[in-house]
Fold:
Amino acid sequence: MKKNLLVISDSRNFHLIIEAVFRGRHAVFFAETEEDAFSLLEQYPLNLIILTPNMKKADSFRFLEHLRGKDSRYSQIPALMAGAFITPEIISNAHKNNISDIVKLPFEPIEFDIKVEELLIKFSPSRERPDPVTGLPKRYVGQERISKLLSDGKKGALMLVDLDYYSFLSTSVSDNTMIACRDVIQEEVRKDDGNAVLSVVKGGGFLLFVRDLREREKVQDYANRLIGKILEKVNETVFVSIGLAVSERHGKNYEDLYKACDKGLGEARNHGKNIAKFYTW
Structure:
């Protein structure tokens, strides 16, 4: 969903850069002065403020102080600061004014894009809420976290866990089954010192990224162990299929890794279920 971003800076080039990064996906508004900024705040429901340390006729930190104290609505808007010279004083002022993140200029557009999307998710009234059944982050949140790890050079295995349940009345798994499966996966993750990202997938499943799990045999054993424990713990007839992929072999970014994982899930379903499969190795 398109969001409204307010960019506050005395640099027109910075305005143009932000517009280029988010063109077509988000609405980007510009303000050079406090008056312009407050005028836009009155006109549009803004989701994020992106600012540099300097703005015309004012100091950006002083503006944020005025903003936070002017109206309770504005105190909830997250802010991200970008600057070429990030001094200890700027960092200190940023913390005092509840600035969520600081980015050094010049930045890599993709990395900046990820930071902004993470903040939009984190402060979104609906998307930040966990799944009501399992209490886990929703899939999109998990995806963003995994993307960030991969962009930071972290390696690991991606697992797409799919649950099927068939009866005369329903084809969807129950809440109790989802909770039981969550417990099994979380227990396995804790054994690995919690070095993983786990989120729920709508329709009955989980997305799991385990860092530093790379060898084919170890990934396969990990997934097989999950399947066995899930089948032991669940009280109803359920089929578990898991698609597998490893970052160093199947994709350096989330999109490529997920595609390989999804194809592996298709292979698992086609080979009788209750198994875990790589698409290729």
